[in-house]
Write a structure and sequence with these properties.
The chain has 349 residues and is an all-beta fold. The chain has one domain: 5 Propeller (Tachylectin-2, Chain A). The strands form 6 sheets. The protein has a 4-stranded antiparallel beta sheet with strand order 1-22-21-20, with no helix packed on it. Strands 2-3-4-5 form a 4-stranded antiparallel beta sheet, with no helix packed on it. A 4-stranded antiparallel beta sheet has the order 8-9-10-11, with no helix packed on it. The radius of gyration is 19 Å and the shape is globular. Helix content is 3%, strand content 45%. The two termini are 19 Å apart. The protein contains 1 helix and 22 strands. This is Glycosyl hydrolases family 43.
């Protein structure tokens, strides 16, 4: 790793001038119609999650600096605007839309723009009592519309499916996703697996999911990307929210392959380590997750990622902020951050 990760957003610092978000994470960065966009999950003051966006000015190149402008309501620069209204109380994803993944593809020969996401119906995020499922938004006439039913649900072995990472490749919608009996709460040991499946229309008729990473691998997020003639898989775990000793290293790795294969053996045997979390800076020391990669206008790889700040005592942090004349952070069991990294030592041809 040649470059130092850059901190873009932190729950500890807040998101001024935005006031209606307590936290944000899972950045998905894509260039759409000559403009760079970031889609992310935001934790609101009503304690529900929804999907939001930020952008750079049209035509401006991608940078590792924080020049992003979070999309807001007209005339309300302090209020972030979600991509769509919160689903109704009877909906399967009423409490949370997380982990957006933007994809452009085709259905019946017609271009389609979508965002796949993780949805939940339980009020709590970790140690939840109801399963996560995977949903889909579609852009029509300039607005995002929510597909009413999940596009992927859990099984008897794994009640929850989450972290959808989708590409459109060789006429198929190809999805890597995590599966687990439950999202771990404090004191639980993560039990994630990663599966892969493909579909002609990206909504149903999915192939039987193939196991890609086992529970022993302990990976959660596997984000594919085709760059030139090579495929990359950006891999991370779930984030060690409470800084527990039972978790495996919470770093960020990159695999390579000549095809978007669902067979693990077709990818590099050992991944390239991009970021080592536990010896890094405080803002990502408790783990990295929810990552994406893209190529900037100079042909260099830029990685965006979520992370968890090193565990802190809220009272101590609040006191330090007050001494600096700043507002104390919102009381939370852990604090998310968003950062990026320019990687110069990855071969892309």
């Amino acid at each position: 790793m040649e470059a130092k990760p850059n901190l873009l957003y932190s729950m500890l610092d807040g998101y001024k001038p935005i006031r209606n978000l307590l936290g944000l994470g899972d950045p998905c960065v894509e260039k759409i119609d000559d403009q760079w966009w970031m889609f992310f999950g935001g934790f609101q003051r009503n304690f529900k999650n929804n999907l939001f966006s930020a952008s750079l000015p049209k035509g401006e190149p991608l940078t590792t600096e924080n020049k992003w402008q979070i999309s807001t309501y007209p005339g309300k620069s302090h209020k972030a605007k979600p991509l769509l209204p919160q689903p109704k109380e009877a909906a399967w994803d009423r409490y949370g839309l997380h982990e957006p993944c933007y994809v452009e593809g085709k259905v019946n020969g017609k271009p389609v723009r979508r965002i796949y996401y993780t949805g939940r119906s339980a009020s709590n995020v970790l140690g939840n009592e109801s399963p996560y499922s995977i949903g889909c938004l579609e852009l029509r006439h300039g607005r995002w519309f929510r597909h009413p039913d999940p596009v992927m649900i859990g099984t008897v072995r794994n009640d929850s499916v989450l972290a959808p990472k989708v590409i459109y490749d060789e006429g198929k919608w190809k999805m890597w996703f995590a599966a687990t009996p439950h999202e771990p709460g404090k004191g639980d040991i993560p039990m994630h697996e990663v599966y892969a499946a493909e579909s002609e229309n990206g909504l149903d008729t999915w192939s039987k999911p193939r196991l890609f990473f086992t529970r022993e691998d302990a990976f959660t997020h596997a984000r594919p990307k085709k760059i030139n003639n090579m495929y990359y898989l950006l891999v991370s775990r779930c984030g060690n929210a409470f800084g527990e000793d039972t978790y495996k290293p919470q770093d960020l790795w990159l695999f390579k392959s000549k095809t978007a294969s669902f067979t693990r053996a077709d990818w590099s045997e050992a991944p390239q380590l991009l970021i080592k979390a536990d010896t890094g800076e405080d803002w990502y020391q408790n783990g990295i997750f929810g990552s994406c990669l893209c190529m900037d206008d100079n042909g260099e790889m830029v990685i965006f990622f979520s992370a968890i700040n090193k565990s802190i005592y809220w009272i101590n942090e609040a006191g330090a902020k007050l001494k600096q004349g700043k507002k104390p952070p919102f009381p939370a069991p852990f604090y998310f951050t968003v950062g990026n990294l320019r990687v110069k030592n990855v071969q892309t041809k």
